[in-house]
Design goal:
By secondary structure, the protein is mainly α. It is about 80% helix and about 0% strand. The chain starts with a helix and ends with a helix. The longest helix is centred in the last third of the chain and has 45 residues, at about 165-205. It has helices spanning about 1-15, 20-30, 35-65, 70-90, 110-120, 125-135, 140-160, 165-205. The protein has one domain (about 1-205).
């Protein structure tokens, strides 16, 4: 149970990656006051929490409705994680999280998009919660996953409201170093997911 808790927490934390969100958040809120920035961070994490919980709870229905197998989802998830991890290894925000035209501040509520979606709850984190919930047979594991979502988003919120101080403290080089370390972790998780999904498919092919 402890291993599963650590796996869900580290996977979600590295895929959401608050460190890579901080520079984008600062750019989005540079004209806002401290209090306004805090409210944007709170609303953004609340939106992300709602999205991840909805996909965690409704993930099995989505897979059943579209007839998607768990091995297939693992393979796709592994590919998505690998792309995210590779971008992080290059010390840049993943293209699967945000596109240049989504960084405009004057279009709608930035707490909803791009902060809540897709910076915090992007394709990687959504795929991760669906995968973990699908594999969670016991209620204890499902509760661990929900707790991991709460903890990761709580840490994300705290890092966003303290983003100015954190970025100033670690500096540009420190931020890039942390991004690369977390990118390496994400790529390792990606390989585990990919081959975890590929193994049963290859086994079925060989048994035909």
């Amino acid at each position: 149970m402890l291993d599963y808790a650590l796996l869900t927490f580290t996977s979600l934390f590295t895929v959401i990656n608050p460190i890579s969100i901080m520079p984008a958040f600062l750019a989005l809120t540079e004209e806002n006051t401290m209090e306004e920035s805090r409210m944007i961070a709170l609303r953004g994490t609340a939106v992300a929490f709602t999205i991840l919980i909805l996909f965690a709870i409704g993930g099995n229905f989505i897979l059943s409705f579209f007839n998607i197998s768990l091995p297939g989802l693992k393979i796709v998830g592994g590919i998505i994680f690998f792309i995210i991890g590779y971008d992080m290894l290059q010390a840049r925000i993943s293209k699967t999280k945000v596109r240049p035209n989504e960084q405009m501040k004057d279009e709608g509520d930035i707490a909803l998009t791009p902060l809540g979606i897709p910076l915090i709850s992007g394709p990687g984190s959504i795929t991760a919660v669906i995968l973990f919930m699908k594999e969670s047979v016991f209620i204890e594991k499902r509760l661990m996953l929900l707790l991991s979502i709460v903890l990761v988003l709580s840490i994300t919120y705290l890092m966003l409201i303290g983003a100015r101080q954190i970025v100033r403290f670690i500096g540009s080089n420190g931020n890039k170093m942390l991004l690369r370390i977390m990118g390496l972790i994400v790529m390792v998780i990606a390989v585990e997911f990919f081959f975890g999904g590929l193994k049963p498919i290859v086994r079925d092919i060989l048994m035909i």
